[in-house]
Amino acid sequence: MAKPAVILLSGGLDSTTTAAIARAEGFDLYALSLDYGQRHRHELEAARRVARAMGVRRHVFLAIDLRAFGGSALTGPIEVPKDRSLGQMQAEIPVTYVPARNTIFLALALGYAEVVGAADLFIGINAIDYSGYPDCRPEYVAAFGRLAALATKAGVEGRLSYQIHTPLVAMTKAEIISRGTELGVDFGLTHSCYDPDAAGLSCGRCDACLLRRKGFAEAGLVDPLPYAR
To answer: What SS3 string covers the chain?
Structure first.
C-alpha cells in the first residue's frame, strides 16, 4: 500500500513539479492549498486543476486571511515589483515576501499530516532561482523538521518520524521545468504570476513571471501560458 504524503499545492510551477515527484516516488498524495488573501488567487483554480490531473487522494482548501496582517505586496496595498534583474531580486528580501508564510503553511500541513498518518510532507521551495525568501533555505527546513518531532503527539510518541521533502531546493528553474516535463507535467495547468489581471492573465513582468520565463528559455522549452506582455 502506498504511503500517504501531504503536499503543499499552490498551483504554481514548483509545487506542481514537487507533487509529480512525490507521485513518481510512490506516495499517495493529500494536497493542501491555502487561500490566504493573496492577490493572485487565480493560483487556487490552478491548484484545483493540478490536483485533478495528479489524482490526489484528498484536496483540502483552507482559508486563512493574512490580509489582516498585511506587510506584503501579495496581501496588502503595496505595488508588486516589475522588470527586475535576477541580481535585483536577490539583493534583498523583496516586498512580495509574506511574513512567516512557509512557517504558517507547514504548520497547517503538519496538522493535516498527523491526522492522515503521513510522516512525509512535500513543499516546493527552491534556493537557486528564487526571490531571496528566508523561508526557502535548507537550514529553515531542517529547523522545521526538528520542530515537527517536538510539536506533535505522533512525533513525541514515536509513531511518526516526520520528514520535510524539498526535492527542488537545489535545482534551477530550468532543471525544475525539465524534471517536470520528464514526469509528464502539463505546465499549462499552472499559474505563477504575482499580479495577474482580472481574467487571470499573467503580467509577464513580476519576479515570478520573469523567473518562470527564464526557466523555460534555458530549458529550451516553450512556456504554454499566455502573457499580457
So the answer is: CCCEEEEECCCCHHHHHHHHHHHHCCCEEEEEEEECCCCCCHHHHHHHHHHHHHCCCEEEEEECCHHHCCCCCCCCCCCCCECCCHHHHHHCCCCCCCCCHHHHHHHHHHHHHHHHCCCEEECCCCCCCCCCCHHHCHHHHHHHHHHHHHHCHHHHCCCCCCEEECCCCCCCHHHHHHHHHHCCCCHHHCCCCCCCCCCCCECCCEHHHHHHHHHHHHHCCCCCCCECC
Compute the distance between CA of residue 115 and CA of residue 137 in angstroms, rounded to an integer.
27
Which grid cell is 18? 514537487
Residue with cell 514515536: 158
C-alpha cell at 30: 493529500
Mean pLDDT per 10-residue segment, the chain (229 residues): 95 98 98 96 96 98 97 95 89 91 97 98 86 85 95 95 96 96 98 94 96 97 94
CB crowding 181-193: b at 16 or more within 10 Å, else e: beeebebebbbbb
Domains of the chain: 4-219 (3.40.50.620)
Q: What Rg value do the Cα atoms of the chain yield, rounded?
A: 17
Residue 106: how many CB atoms within 10 A of its CB?
25
Contact yes or no for 29/57 (Cβ under 8 A)? yes
